[in-house]
Design brief:
By secondary structure, this protein is an alpha+beta fold. It has helices at residues 9-15, 38-48, 77-80, 111-117, 119-128; strands spanning 19-24, 28-33, 56-61, 86-94, 102-107, 130-131. The protein starts with 8 loop residues before the first helix and ends in a 22-residue tail after the last strand. It is globular, with a radius of gyration of 18 Å. A hairpin with a 7-residue loop joins strand 4 (86-94) and strand 5. Helix content is 25%, strand content 23%.
């Protein structure tokens, strides 16, 4: 079928590759291919944010919904995320070891940009963070996110 002037909008959209936009750093926007497995997307985000490969990352949409893409590592990105949507990259810090109940979500987008453009999400990140110990109180000590040495010195 010809993709000329008479092509329908649906046909033209099918010819455009699937992608998402990920915000990170000092107001950076990165367009990433959504026609790949989630594990590859997360590796690309870690690379763009200069995180170690062992670091854990996730995404939050612009409405504040945690996407939990790590639960779908072998699925295609377009199956779990809405095509052409914008997401904010988050690092996952684990407090006191590997306990699932002590995760903290840290935006990889600058605090200034978060406060200006996403104040509700910025304020609600503590709610997203599962930061309760066995006794229901926050615990001290944190396994932080390790960044690679900056390539732009």
């Amino acid at each position: 079928m010809s993709k000329g002037a008479n092509a329908t909008i649906k046909e033209r959209d099918a010819a455009v590759p699937a992608f998402i936009v990920v915000r990170h750093g000092e107001d950076e926007k990165t367009i990433l291919n959504a026609d790949c497995r989630v594990v590859m997307l997360l590796d690309a985000i870690k690379d763009r944010c200069r995180l170690d490969r062992e670091a854990e990352v996730d995404l939050v949409d612009e409405k504040g919904k945690l996407m939990a893409v790590g639960d779908s590592m072998n699925r295609y990105v377009y199956e779990v995320l809405e095509d052409r949507s914008t997401f904010i990259a988050l690092a996952i810090e684990k407090e006191n070891g590997e306990d699932e109940e002590s995760k903290k979500f840290v935006p990889l987008l600058s605090a200034k940009t978060m406060q200006v453009e996403y104040p509700t999400i910025y304020a609600n990140l503590e709610t997203l963070s599962k930061n309760k110990g066995k006794n229901g109180k926050g615990q001290k000590g944190r396994k932080g996110v390790t960044r690679r040495n900056s390539r732009l010195k």
